[in-house]
Records
---
Amino acid sequence: MTIWELLVLAVGLAMDAFAVAICKGLTLKKITIGRMCLVGLWFGGFQALMPLIGYLFGTGFQSFIKEIDHWIAFALLVILGCNMIRESGEEEEVDGAFSIRSMFPLAVATSIDALAVGVTFAFLNVQIVEAILMIGIITFLISGAGVAIGEKFGSRFRRRAMILGGLILIFLGARILYGHLADEGKIPDIRELQMQASSTVEEDLPADPYEALEGEGTLLDDVRAAGTLRIGVSPDFAPCSFYQKEGEGELKVTGADITLGQHLADSFGVSAQIVPMEFRDLIEAVAAREVDLAIGGFAYTEDRTDGVLLSSFYGVGDDGGQRILAAIGDARSYSLPENFAGKRVGAQENSLQENIVRAQLPDAELHTVTSLKEAVHQLLAGNVDAIAVDASFGELICRRYPEELAPAPFQFEYQSQGNVIAMPAGETRFAGAVNLVLQEVNGEGLYEIWLAEALEAYLQDR
């Protein structure tokens, strides 16, 4: 019998004493801790003593009834449980005295069930000291509480407590019988059936979901052999990738893209090595195999397919578009493409924003910068009139500088399909593994969750 089964049994046995304790509480005009402890000691003491007597008695003839001991335990517990339920409908008269003459017969009467249970302990090889201590302590606590409940609320809980106790004893009796019959192989063991079903499912699943992937290249095997996935990122694109303060003066790279990279590494069974660099250097680093892949909020463009492979899309649900930020006093003046004629518009080098400024604002004077942080500083310093940014990043910047910057009414004509990951050319098997993970990420909406968490972290850090 497990510790939890003993605990449940102790509670079930205590219900009889609990019901009588409620009746005792009804006779009190004023409750005291002393009276609660006195009732608890009487009932708890006898509830611990009786199972010990039953256990000693049961061990005397255990060897003679070993073949049917589980049936005896089942019968005793079921009879006791049914009897407790039957007595729940009977009114019980209890006098208000707390003398030995009054308490002794009550303590014996409420613990007779425990005597019978003690006999079953001999058949079940229960640790008797542990069992009687638990039964005694539980009964002490529940009986004391019963006195208080009876004094406060009357006998409304008595019947329910008796029924509950009876049901617990019946359940434990059935549990003991089932366990013995299952162990003897006379009935199916649901535990073994569950284990067999679980093992069947595990056998049906491939041991390694990436083992059967077809394609060229050895990068997937190289990464798993090395135990490390090298991930290139550009930590100037919050909330996808940014620096966050950690400790005194220390910075760590975090964001939704970092979480995605860690998820990829976990899926491959390796550790993630985050390699920060300038955005403009990411694609070249992948092509030169200085990193295994790059995650940088890349949009799919034809020129990016030169020298690298691009993954399937992820983050499809996050499409705020591409926007223009300007000084708060000038933002409203930029609503049409012609409003940008002769204006200095900043964009990050080798980015989607650089391409769409060239295509959709041909009369603007394009100024490329190495990072988004630099673009914001150029705008704040007045070195450019506006900057082109991803809408989500622009929203963060406007929150950080609410009195200096604002989004312009103008919007680029651009519909995002999501972002892609850059991987070395020729590594189609590795790309297949990455796309397999992205399929899971998209199916469960994980990237959107990571993005929201990163956004909250970014705003709290500023």
---
Amino acid sequence: MIAEGKDYSFEFQLAAARFYQNLLYQFYDNSSYTDLWTRKTLNRLTEWGIRDASGAIVMLDENLLIAEDSYANEEVEKEYNQIYSEYQNRDYNSAQVKFMKFISSYPGHTLSYDALYYAAECYYNMGQLSKAMEMFAKVIDFDRDKTPDALLRLGHCYNALGKKQEAYEYWNRLIDEYPDNYLTDVIKLTFTNIRKQEEQAFAAASVPADKEQKVTLKYRNYIQKYKQGDYRSARKGFASIIKKYPEHPLAYDALFMQAESYFQEGKFQDAADTYHAVLALDGNKTVNSLYKLGQSAEKQGNIPQRDQYWQQIIDEYPDHYLAGVVAGGDAEIKAQRVITRPVKTQPRKIPTTPVTTDPGQYQYKKALMDFRYNKYTEAITGFKDFVDKNPDHRLAFNARFLMAESYQNLGKYQKSLTLYQQILPSSGARRSENLIHIAQNYIALDQTENAVNILNEIKIIYAGTFAAAQANKLLNKILGADNE
């Protein structure tokens, strides 16, 4: 028995509270209770802040996350995994709501701690930094295995808000308290990227004339290494151009060639990740990247994924020569216009099945052509009608994205902003591009503070990419306007 008025160690309280909660969950029916021990149990849990006087579960505190054995773990874990799948699919708004509901439903379960952390991640990925910071702080208070991750994220939040001193405090705490954690290396790299970005901020927006020739010569040198089959050296060279000269026009080509180098080295997943980065920039290598993403998927044995990428070429770029290639032409035609060493592959036959003529495909293509010919009003009408009739179509996201861009091009910034925000959770590889558009709309609407927050977030999350370079340019313009 526990003597009244006596102070017990925290460890003892944990053990006793576990027993009390199990007892309560077995005998307390949430409507009435008359059993003496049930009343004593409820009183003790109320005293320790685990339940309120009515028996309702209160919000998380340190003693609350202890009763994982009190629930049917299999069902709870299944529910948690379903919510986590939504998080992995970047449906952050829905996942955040469900994570918080999970915490309220199972406050004593071990997974409630993980749910708390990932709810904070959802807020972070939706750009709601203040709410994210509040949740990450709670994660740190529990001092469990997600503490290093929360320290890292809190630093990111403060840095995105321009509060570098506070950001450095959390990051230094991560380094000091968790020197063996892999995130320590991540944050050291973050420090390096921030220093580079600060140095770039003082540099001119364009590369000086003497550097222009230097960058071009370097790029040509790495192209030669690539042609000679020294893919590793070429890849590192292209990476150096991207990091040192992110705003130079050749940096985009260097990014594509970095992906090509990975592919030739047989590092197909790294190649795919880099091709996705090229896609996010929506430049003249988009179709080539889709083609090579299909080849990368094929190399990894994922034929359905290959067909999906190649179908996208047919749907969105029907006039491109690669559309003919993937629809049944010569499969070994090179996907880029530079001379490369061809990948040795086994002869294969690409399916010559005609392109599916689903009801919405023609309508999407018509709207896409209107968009490409700057007929934005017609494009909006076409895309909207397509989405209304085909909300689950594989091209529905593209239609919404291009509709938002059409509004932006017409100067209807509030409509564009609202639509970009709605599709942000499902943006996937185009998330950084989406955020850039959101920031541009904020600038056009004179909501400078919101734009700065988004752009600073891009600089941190996508450090070393073209998205970060674009964010840097926009920030320089904002700062320049403020100083006039």
---
Amino acid sequence: MRRITLSAIYILLSACCIISQNHNIVKLSLQECLNTAINKNAAIRTAILDQQKSQYKIEQTKSALFPQVNVNGNFSDNLQLPVTVIPGDFLGKPGSNYAIKMGSTYSASASLTIKQELYNQTKFTAIKLAKKDEALQYMQVQKSKENLTYDLSKLYFLSLITDKQKSLDEENIARTQRLKEITQTLVTNGLKKTVDYDRVCVNLENLRTDLSNTEATLDQQQNMIKYMLQLPLDTKLILTDSIEMPFFLSTPAVIDNLNDQTDIKILEMQKERNLLNQKKINRGYLPTLSFTGQYEYQGLRQSFGNYFKSSDENRWYPSSYVGVSLSIPIFDGMDKRSQARQAKAEYQQSVIKFEDTKQKYSVDYKNAVNNFLNQQENVKRQKGNVLLAEKVYQEATLQYKQGEIALSALLQDDMDMNNAQVSYLKALYDLKVATLDMITINGEIKNLTNK
């Protein structure tokens, strides 16, 4: 009975372990990886917060055009009243002066003031500048997404290539293990020398070392993917796409106009922003007009105890005014002129950088298209080469078993087949990178996350 109970407990624990392991398995396509990373990536979240800050900056800039209303209060205890000297003529005693204390011991006031900008071109331009900054931050978010898409796509397919390399290493080990057993039999029968057996053993150990290195590399690559997706490191990650899967159903189009390229859009916006900044500074020379108004109550008392007693002697005196205020800049020590010259230089720099970048991207795009077409041909060529190398190795294996060729020739054919397989995998990866380079420059890379 006790043995049955222990067996049942063991089965339950095993089942729990299996369920727990299944919970840690995550299967992801490239599309799912990209969507997950974009939602969780720290750089993109930071860029989005910068965009939100720019939106708040627009609200802050607009606030200067709304009425500015303030309530002010003041209380003072005049410990010594100011003295004013008046001529005696006012008192009927010409030729003499009299010192008279003026004011009240206590004074208090409460006022409501309002100010409204009526004409201020500097602040109007500042709003346009803030909106341009917000649009620029939006493009920075898109650029961050494209950078993440590029890096994660490369890493995704590199991991697939490494995983395929791991499978090839395992197949090579299994094949060499069989060759080792065949050679052992031939040595036992006196058809081969012991040194042939030793050569196979050396080759087998080299393959096992290659497998160990490949497994370590694959683990590092998948850990980086987990980091980019914010997944726990103990998660078992399964990439579901094929290494031969194209990014798009059709070949990316070759275009002449690169205005949809994000970097070019950003530089164009920076150029427009610098021009607006220059205009904003120059409009500081224009006059400003504002409406002002105030309503105030003032109380004057000789005794603090009478402040809140209502009587004819303890009155609160109202006062108010409305008006307009005109300010015309005349001379500021050349401050605005210096700022305007700096802004003009920044604008000219942005124009030069914009034109130079457009030319550079035209060259880069032409090179990227040529590289893409070349890598397509390389993949076809290397795929045919793998099939041929496998055929040669199969024939060489048969000849070796029949004693028609030496072991060195078989090992050379095996090496040639391995090199052909590695070259094919490298060609596949190079094609993926060439495609990414091409669609990054022509702006199609954003479509990878918009499917």
